[in-house]
Specification:
Gyrase A, domain 2, 21 helices, 677 residues, 4 domains, protein-N(PI)-phosphohistidine-sugar phosphotransferase activity, alpha+beta, sugar transport, transport, 8-stranded antiparallel beta sheet
Length: 677
């Protein structure tokens, strides 16, 4: 059943012109109500082709009503659960593509929230790939620990099988700048494919091939060179940008402003031609000449500064390293430090950066462990999955990116739990003067590469448990973020319970009426009874939601026309569904489009699953409020399981009172038994 609902949900979104064409979504008792950007992009015939769709009704120039009947809430939840529809809340409009989107809880330091949200939403779409690649690395590190292969050996010296396995994880980390270029541009509102094309130019064989004829300029790091060639008569640095995320992030920011300017200069009719053309023409050279070298220069400058600190005091360096890394890694500025580590091991036989770096890694993993424990308590399954993947990749593979991008950058309070762990671990590392004797990922499996191993173990344990305890005591979210998440979890749990209740109710057989019996349903409110074909709403008038009667009310209270049970009661109070003891399912819908009144003017007197007696009040409504809101107050009384009966006939009248018969329902005749031969 769930898969059918999800399939129909995707079918509806696709034939409404895709998620980008949907501006907002709400639902009432029987139908999904969409606002679309371009009504001509809707394929109404294709929508109608799904048996679950009872009808499609355009409304105005931007509205589309998709009639789903009593199970509308299940389809509404399924549509909101689609990846392409994330962030479209009930009744909330989603901005059109091309505008910056900032959501979530805000503090008084708005610019800090924007920065964290930008980085978080830039890396969040790539998180799945990062987690997958990280666990492949974890497997390779385990193979190294068990002696099957040497993880750090040059690829050309490894068997083809391991070369291929390395290619599997490097596909994500090496080309990460291209992914980040796309997601950062999309977050800001620029074209994501242009954002990806800019860093991609720096990965082409043509760009890398220019290194063959470039000039080699020695750097401050022994054995490291900068390659420079002349392009357009200007010096261009040719470097390997694999894994560098600073250049694409900065390029995406510049692209956003450039596109905004170009769209003002050129008329809309030629935006598709000239905006990407000029954007690429400007941004690729700007990134290659300025943005890329600038990012590399910052990283190299930090590397030189750390070398100077170590020459002055190794203890101070051991404290600085873990406190600095949480700010370097998000921008990819930590990569140049790897060159120093390799040079140190080659020239000195040991390295002074990797040991203290372990304090940062394990403080990070401690935060994630705390998040995992809290998420398990709250039954926050999405965060449990992120934390589990990040913790496994960290503890076994020494990979911090999934934890960083999946948790730390999403919740800025988590840094306040992270940094104390970094500090405590760094102090212990400095006290023991921890050094690394191999270039390794700092995980549980690589402890033997550190000396003294006991001092290193104490340091990473202190970092881990300090940050984990801080998360468990103070949480990793602000109070507002915590409340927002808890409200979402409670809403999801309530929705799941309601869906299960509805499934059970729907599965339970309704009481059967005796063969051929005619049952008369009485008016649930006073007024003028008219045929539903006169109702100014195509969905009701067509009988797609069931046959019955419409009543133009003179009273203000809806009562139960017979004994039964409440199946549904809308929160807005404008509709109620009943299962009568005689086997008839009844939908009573007060007014047309009154769902838009959001409950104003309506009072409900019953709850879902409540047993009611004939004459019990169900809903009280204010006819003047409905009129003032601009909606008809005509009330539909429909037999929603019409197909189970031989006939459902309305009984129109100029005036009906409570108890006046308004609908005649005839039970189906049982098929005659075959005569004996």
């Amino acid at each position: 059943m769930a898969s059918k609902i999800q399939g129909t949900a995707q079918h509806i979104v696709d034939n409404l012109g895709g998620a980008d064409n949907i501006a907002s979504l709400t639902h009432c008792a029987t139908r999904l109500r969409f606002q679309v950007r371009d009504q001509s992009a809707v394929d109404q015939a294709a929508l109608d082709s799904d048996p679950a769709v009872l009808g499609v009704v355009p409304q105005g120039s931007t509205g589309m009503q998709v009639i789903m009947g009593g199970g509308v809430a299940d389809y509404y939840q399924a549509i909101n659960g689609l990846d392409s529809m994330q962030g479209l809340a009930d009744g909330e409009s989603r901005p059109a593509s091309g505008k910056k989107e900032y959501g979530g809880v805000r503090s008084r330091f708005g610019w800090v929230d924007y920065a964290f949200e930008f980085l978080s939403d830039t890396f969040r779409p790539v998180l799945w790939a990062l987690l997958g690649a990280s666990l492949i690395i974890t497997g390779l590190v385990l193979a190294d620990t068990l002696g099957f292969q040497e993880f750090r050996a040059p690829l050309e010296e490894q068997p083809p099988t391991y070369q291929f396995l390395h290619a599997m994880w490097r596909s994500v980390f090496y080309f990460l700048p291209i992914f980040v270029g796309a997601t950062a541009a999309k977050k800001l509102g620029a074209n994501e494919w242009v954002g990806a094309a800019i860093p991609a130019a720096l990965f082409t064989p043509e760009f890398a091939g220019m290194k063959e004829t470039a000039r080699e300029i020695p750097t401050a790091i022994e054995g490291q060179y900068t390659y420079v060639t002349d392009v357009f008569g200007l010096p261009m640095v040719i470097q390997d940008y694999g894994g560098q995320v600073f250049p694409p992030i900065f390029a995406a920011i510049l692209l956003f402003f450039l596109e905004k300017l170009l769209k003002k200069i050129f008329p809309a009719a030629v935006h598709m031609v000239f905006v990407p053309f000029i954007s690429l023409l400007i941004m690729i050279p700007l990134t290659a000449f300025v943005v890329g070298p600038f990012g590399l220069g910052i990283g190299n400058g930090i590397a030189h500064m750390l070398s100077a600190i170590n020459d002055f005091s190794p203890f101070i360096l051991a404290v600085v390293i873990p406190l600095l890394y949480p700010f370097l890694v998000p921008l990819g500025l930590h990569w140049p430090l790897n060159a120093i580590m390799l040079v140190n091991i080659t020239n000195l036989g040991y390295d002074f950066i990797q040991g203290p770096m372990g304090a940062w890694n394990f403080a990070c993993f401690g935060v994630v462990a705390g998040v995992l424990i809290l998420s398990a308590r709250e039954k926050n399954r999405p965060m449990q999955q992120v934390a589990t993947g990040g913790l496994l990749a960290g503890l076994l593979g020494g990979i911090s990116e999934p934890s960083l991008y999946g948790i730390l950058l999403r919740f800025r309070n988590s840094y306040a739990r992270l940094l104390p762990g970094c500090l405590v671990g760094g102090i212990i590392m400095g006290f023991f003067n921890v050094e690394a004797y191999a270039f390794v990922f700092t995980s549980l499996l690589t402890i033997p590469a550190m000396s003294p191993a006991l001092g290193y173990t104490i340091g990473i344990a202190a970092a881990f448990f300090t940050s984990m305890i801080l998360v468990l005591v103070f949480d990793y979210r602000s109070a507002a973020e915590k409340e927002e998440v808890r409200a979402r979890i409670a809403a999801e749990r309530e929705a799941a319970n309601e869906a299960e209740d509805e499934r059970i109710d729907a599965a339970a057989p309704a009481p059967a009426m005796a063969t051929g019996v005619v049952t008369e349903l009485t008016a649930p409110l006073e007024g003028r009874a008219i045929d539903i074909s006169e109702v100014p709403d195509e969905a009701f008038a067509s009988g797609a939601l069931g046959k019955g009667i419409a009543i133009e009310p003179t009273g203000d209270t809806v009562v139960a026309p017979a004994d039964g049970k409440v199946l549904t009661i809308q929160k807005t109070g404008h509709a109620v569904g009943l299962r009568l003891d005689n086997g008839i399912d009844l939908l009573i819908h007060v007014g047309i489009d009154t769902v838009k009144m959001a409950g104003e003017g309506f009072t409900t007197h019953v709850e879902k699953k409540q047993q009611v007696k004939s004459g019990d009040p169900l809903i009280t409504f204010d006819r003047e409020a409905i009129k003032a809101a601009g909606y008809p107050a005509v009330t539909l009384v429909l037999v929603s399981n019409t197909k189970k009966f031989a006939d459902v006939l309305p009984v129109p009248a100029e005036h009906v009172n409570l108890g006046t018969p308004v609908i005649s329902v005839t039970a189906k005749q049982e098929a005659a038994a075959p005569a004996d031969a």
